[in-house]
Design goal:
Elements: E1 3-7, E2 10-12, E3 18-25, E4 32-39, E5 46-51, E6 57-59, E7 68-73, E8 78-83, E9 92-100, E10 106-108, E11 112-116
Parallel strand pairs: 2-11
Antiparallel strand pairs: 1-3, 3-8, 4-5, 4-9, 5-6, 7-8, 9-10, 9-11
Length: about 120
């Protein structure tokens, strides 16, 4: 079955960096678009970044443009989110998701907590 396991979250000071990783298994990774979502306390879940099957990436959230980068390694079935210049408002649970091209079903990981605080 599809499994997405996030790691790399934690507590970081404002201005710091984290790299989130997502290990995918149970499906043909190379034919799935991958995304990172996040959900802050009391807020709706929002899409942060997406990377297509072909490797084209987009940052879906204006507030993180220029600071976050998404990437994928099809050989390792991994997707990453590099987060730089972190701000307290980036505090959220971050989720890795997978969607097969042409299909509607989105698979979700269990999430990893990112807390930005001094």
């Amino acid at each position: 079955q599809v499994q997405l396991v996030e790691s790399g979250g934690g507590l970081v000071q404002p201005g710091g960096s984290l790299r989130l990783s997502c290990a995918a298994s149970g499906f043909t990774f190379s034919v799935y678009a991958m995304s990172w979502y996040r959900q802050a306390p009391g807020k709706e879940r929002e899409s942060v970044a997406t990377i297509t099957v072909a490797g084209f990436s987009t940052i879906d959230l204006d507030s993180v443009k220029g600071r976050f980068t998404i990437s994928r390694d099809n050989a390792k079935n991994m997707v990453y989110l590099q987060m730089n210049s972190l701000k307290p408002e980036d505090t959220a649970v971050y989720y890795c998701t997978a969607v097969r091209a042409g299909f509607l079903k989105r698979y979700w990981g269990q999430g990893t907590q990112v807390t930005v605080s001094s």
